[in-house]
Amino acid sequence: MRAMTAIATASAILFSSSASAAEQDFLKSIEGQWAGGGKVLTSIGGSNVNVSCKMQSDAEDTNFSMNGTCRALAVISRTFDAEVKASGTSYSGNYVGVSGKPSKLVGSRSGNTIAFNVTWAQAEYGDRSAKMTIQKVGDDGLRIRTIDQDPKSGKSVVTTQLDLKRQ
Fold it and tell me: Which of 32, 54, 57, 108 is most buried when burial is the number of CB atoms within 10 A of its CB?
């Protein structure tokens, strides 16, 4: 019985270490300076605005941060940042966008994508919840997408999509 307990404990430690190593490798792969552009929806049913963005992502063993700025119409500039901690393949943290107030992120990673449930600090697009994904695209690409729900139709609507390249 003790031998089984020792084997189970050793297996759990080894699995935990390899899972942590996998997350560290993934986090390091999204670290760096990024630039690109995309679209931001002004309101559900509204028009998209083209944006150009720059972002710095820093990673440590079990956490990462993203700090960036997006510009639209050559005169409007908005900053965003996120502080996220990984525990295995589970992720949680805060995101600060246009409102300037911290919104809650809770999610997990599968493959090259971290999928978050977002709880906005205040109502955005008619409610306080959305989905956000951070997806590594190839070796030098990163896509950040926010998806909300149209309160009238119930359909999912992409409210932000940024396609960034490593600089």
Answer: 57
Which residues, including other chains, have CB under 8 Å from residue 148's CB and lie 6 or more apart? Answer: 44, 124, 125, 126, 127, 130, 131, 156, 157, 159
pTM above 0.90, yes or no: no
Q: Cα torsion at 102, 120, 40, 35 (round to 10°)?
A: 30
Q: Which domains does the chain have, with CATH numbers?
A: 2-166 (2.40.128.20)
Q: For residue 92, give every residue at least 6 positions away whose Cβ sits within 8 Å of its Cβ, in sequence order, or none.
A: 84, 85, 104, 105, 106, 107
Residues 117-154 pLDDT 10s: 999 998 888 789 999 999 999 999 999 999 999 988 99
